[in-house]
Write a structure and sequence with these properties.
By secondary structure, this protein is an alpha+beta fold. The protein has one domain: Jelly Rolls. It is about 15% helix and about 35% strand. It contains four helices and eleven strands; from the N terminus they run ααβαββββββββββα. Strands 3, 4, 6, 7 and 9 form a five-stranded antiparallel beta sheet that branches. The longest helix has 11 residues. The radius of gyration is 19 Å and the shape is elongated. The N terminus is likely disordered.
Length: about 240
């Protein structure tokens, strides 16, 4: 049962019409791949030693997308509403082996890596004017934050990087990229903030991309199914 609760959070990538299961045909996530993770669980846990062995050769990346998001007030977390589910326990062969968030690593807004390492994270975003019949002013300048929470830090953690829109008026674009070490169970999320009097902002498009470039053994932690699921529930 413990394995099932984590398995129910298996996610894949679907971005617009570009995603095609056939494009992943030669690197499907197989039953053997599935067993390599769940076969390590003993009494609801995977030891740090087993996690390290699994993670040292793990090659993985992801891209999540959000579209037409309206934020108001103070800091607001970005929910990547255009990235859909593409796998489950019963449909797991539709997952790509290498281009994925994996078991319980993605909530729709927060990336929580199982495998530690040096990760490169990029965020691209564009802003747009509000609706024609909307009488509320839309902010001309928008700041995007990349937050990282480590250990027992208060959520969402610390803002490690920011990007501000550049453009004319309410239409603008922003980009940020950072290379940073992530531990098992760290949490990475993005938040928007308006600059100026008007607090409303329209995020026309946001993409959040990450890929692991190297393994960091000293950042491996024991995996506890119950504790992990509790943290994921707290992030909803």
């Amino acid at each position: 049962m413990r394995a099932k609760s984590v398995a129910s959070l298996v996610l894949g990538i679907f971005i617009g019409s570009a995603a095609n299961p056939q494009s992943f045909a030669d690197e499907e996530f197989t039953d053997e791949d599935f067993a390599q993770f769940f076969g390590l669980i003993v009494d609801g846990k995977i030891t740090a030693e087993k996690m390290n062995k699994r993670c040292e050769k793990e090659v993985v990346g992801f891209t999540f997308a959000g579209k037409d998001l309206v934020h108001d007030g103070d800091l607001a977390r970005v929910e990547y509403n255009e990235t859909g589910l593409k796998a489950s326990v019963d449909g797991r062969t539709l997952r790509s082996r290498h281009f994925n968030a994996t078991f319980g690593e993605w909530t729709g807004a927060v990336f929580k890596p199982l495998c530690p390492g040096l990760w490169v994270i990029s965020v691209d975003f564009s802003t747009a004017p509000g609706a024609v019949d909307d009488d509320q002013d839309v902010a001309d300048d928008v700041l995007m934050h990349l937050y990282v929470r480590r250990g027992d830090e208060e959520r969402p953690g610390s803002s490690v990087l920011q990007a501000r829109t550049a453009g004319e008026g309410q239409r603008g674009n922003g980009h940020m990229t950072i290379a940073l070490p992530l531990h098992t169970g760290d949490e990475v999320s993005t938040y928007s903030e308006a600059i100026g009097v008007s607090q409303k902002r329209v995020l026309e498009r946001v993409t959040f991309t990450g890929y692991k470039t190297g393994h960091l053994e000293k950042y491996v932690k024991e995996f506890d199914v119950d504790a992990w699921n509790a943290e994921l529930e707290a992030l909803q």
